[in-house]
Design brief:
9 helices; elongated
């Protein structure tokens, strides 16, 4: 069966799924509940599959309804983007913006940035999701993902937001008890706090002794009795004096300045992990994504000023 879905029908499905009830959708659309039920029945009849599971107390989408809802959201947003590109309103971002970031960095930097962004562009509805591990780039769950390190995937655009480097650090009380490592090989004799995140090699730290760009990485297999997938927890363990930690500079800078943590092996470079905003090529002309990424670039540039 060849089903020609119209934007109004897609919008109806999105409203129904978002509200979660026939009566709520009726109030949102300004029609009666029976009219919503009839409209849904007609749509299901045209498509040939049920979209909604109906019970006396609640409504839920069927598997087919979930698929239609996800695609309808994307199609409607792409239509809105197309309209903005073709009209004078393209400079005024509108619509939904789905953002993903890591837990610690998202709380500390991205959430405040979003707060300021929506003050400037109130017609954008932002959904921020924080996660321990970044979602696969092939997924269509998010419009913009904040990543550490530039992805190799050519299907996406990566805008550099800020420089970032992982540092080795430890609390002064830990170093007082166990001594300070002088070479990367010394790390094997220390208690090292490990973080399991993404696809990174677990328990292997890579250090560089030469100048920028030299291929002189030293891989050190480290061990320790504390492991977590949450960077904030790992920092707190380091502050408590449990061991040596490798962590992004933005996350420990304030503790280095206060002296609660001390940089370890400062003569060795750890891998760069510059911060990027990543989004699909098809979104590069979207006003909401363009203005959001530009806003982040400006914000981080201002933070780098003395």
């Amino acid at each position: 069966m060849n089903v020609n879905l119209q934007p109004a029908e897609l919008s109806f499905v999105v409203t129904l799924a978002t509200i979660g009830s026939l009566s709520g959708a009726a109030r949102e659309l300004g029609i009666t509940t029976s009219a919503v039920s009839k409209r849904l029945a007609l749509l299901e009849g045209r498509i040939g599959v049920p979209l909604v599971n109906r019970t006396t107390r609640r409504m839920s989408l069927t598997a087919e309804g979930e698929v239609l809802y996800e695609h309808a959201q994307r199609i409607l947003q792409e239509l809105a983007d197309l309209e903005q590109m073709l009209t004078k309103s393209k400079g005024t971002p509108k619509g939904q913006l789905r953002v993903n970031a890591t837990l610690g960095f998202g709380r500390l930097h991205i959430a405040p940035a979003i707060s300021q962004y929506v003050l400037r562009y109130p017609e954008v509805d932002v959904q921020l999701q924080l996660s321990v591990d970044p979602p696969p780039l092939a997924d269509d769950q998010f419009d913009v993902c904040i990543r550490f390190g530039a992805p190799a995937d050519t299907r996406v655009i990566a805008r550099r937001l800020a420089a970032n480097r992982r540092l080795l650090c430890a609390a002064p009380k830990y170093l007082a008890r166990h001594g300070e490592p002088k070479t990367p090989a010394d790390l094997a004799r220390h208690n090292c706090i490990a973080i399991r995140q993404g696809d990174e090699a677990y328990g292997v730290w890579r250090l560089h002794a030469g100048k920028e760009g030299e291929r002189d990485a030293v891989a050190v297999k480290v061990r320790g009795n504390l492991t977590t997938n949450d960077g904030e927890i790992a920092v707190n363990w380091a502050l408590d004096g449990h061991g040596i930690l490798m962590r992004a500079g933005w996350d420990i800078e304030r503790y280095l300045e206060s002296g609660r943590l001390v940089q370890v092996l400062p003569g060795y470079r750890t891998p760069d992990a510059d911060i990027h905003a990543v989004y699909p090529h098809r979104h590069q002309l979207s006003a909401r994504i363009r203005t959001f990424v530009d806003f982040l670039v400006e914000r981080f540039a201002a933070m780098d000023q003395p």
